[in-house]
Design a protein that fits this description.
With about 350 residues, the protein is an alpha/beta fold. Helices cover about 40% and strands about 20% of the residues. The protein has helices spanning about 10-15, 20-50, 105-115, 130-135, 135-140, 155, 160-170, 245-260, 275-300, 305-310, 320-340, and strands at about 60, 65, 85-90, 95, 120-125, 145-150, 190, 195-200, 200-205, 215-220, 225-235, 265-270.
Length: about 350
């Protein structure tokens, strides 16, 4: 029997080719145990993370549902839930119109859809590539949906504007928009009218830009007569005009009036059972902006003077008038200046 005493653990450590010393070994062991404990805790926390809460949705027509955003500016408090999304359930799957303003909201919309049908989301139609309508796209893409959008959206996705908007949103809308939030391109870019047919339901998708954006699409559900307009219509509130081509926007609204839809789902606000009236409200507001600011620009009147003398009484009681009207007027003033110089 070999009675030689076993080496002391210290000698084993010292015999290795990379001696680290007993105190350092204990520190490393404690660190490893701490990391392991942290991983266990994290896995436990993830296991206990509740499933996404379904967004509140309302049925607006047979098989058609609306998730209505708040009439507010995007903020961490509302998770950027300031725009609408809708979906149509067919026997072969679901078509979603717009993806909402954060991945968490998209999770809530997917959960709401799952309460109504076990069928998958087959398509997401993007009415336009503004942040409050697209930051949820990555969740639908991960769920296997095919994304459809207007072809001019590719230019926006490649622009500094899109990159800087996302960067600002990560700061202003954290934690709902973060480094994991990505811009998602379409799987199919449309440059003309098309029909998406699924489970016997037909949705006519019509490019109508440039208007609110260059890539604007509207969607008409043929069976129910529901028209989804994106941000061409802000029901019962002031639209954000931004850098839009308001002249083309007005012409696009005229096209939508000619469709005579039965119901209208706007990009913001409640469903409209009087589509013609709401289409005309947005149209009349844009016409008023162009007339007032165009006259001022043509007469070389300073913007401040023109804004002060303009009669806003028809629109000033509408939601977000104080937040949007002045910048809308200023951008229109600059647009009319440019149009005047081009004559």
């Amino acid at each position: 029997m070999n009675k030689t005493a076993a080496p002391h653990p210290r000698s084993r450590v010292q015999a290795t080719s990379h001696p680290i010393g007993w105190p350092r070994l204990k520190r490393r062991a404690r660190a490893a145990l701490g990391a392991l404990a942290g991983a266990w805790a994290l896995s436990g926390a993830l296991a206990q993370t509740p499933a996404p809460q379904p967004l509140p949705v309302q049925q607006v027509a047979p098989g058609t549902w609306l998730a209505q955003g708040e009439a507010a500016l995007g903020s961490p408090a509302n998770r950027n839930f300031i725009s609408n999304a809708a979906f149509v359930v067919t026997p072969e799957g679901v078509v979603v119109i717009d993806a909402l303003g954060s991945p968490a909201l998209a999770d809530g919309l997917l959960a709401a859809i799952a309460r109504i049908t076990p069928l998958p989301v087959r398509y997401v139609i993007v009415t336009h590539y503004h942040a409050d309508h697209i930051y949820g796209l990555q969740r639908f893409k991960a769920a296997g949906a095919r994304i459809v959008a207007g072809t001019q959206g590719r230019e926006y996705l490649a622009s500094d504007t899109a990159r800087l908007r996302l960067q600002a949103s990560r700061e202003e809308l954290a934690p709902w928009i973060d480094e994991a939030t990505q811009l998602v391109p379409a799987d199919r870019w449309l440059d003309g009218p098309t029909v998406i047919e699924l489970g016997g339901e037909r949705l006519r998708v019509q490019p109508v830009g440039p208007a609110h954006t260059p890539e604007d699409l509207v969607v008409l559900h043929e069976r129910t007569g529901v028209l989804f307009t994106g941000d061409l219509v802000f029901q019962g509130r002031i639209p954000f005009v931004g850098q839009a081509d308001s002249s083309s926007w007005i012409r696009s609204l005229d096209q939508l009036l000619a469709l005579e839809p039965r119901l209208l789902v706007p990009g913001h606000g409640a469903i409209s059972s009087q589509p013609a009236a709401d289409l005309r409200l947005t149209r009349d507001y844009l016409v008023h902006l162009r007339q007032a600011m165009g006259e001022a620009a043509a007469n070389l009147e300073p913007f401040e003077d023109a804004y002060a003398r303009t009669d806003w009484s028809r629109f000033e009681s509408l939601p977000l008038f104080q937040a949007a009207n002045r910048i809308n007027a200023y951008n229109t003033y600059l647009l009319m200046e440019r149009e005047g110089m081009g004559r």
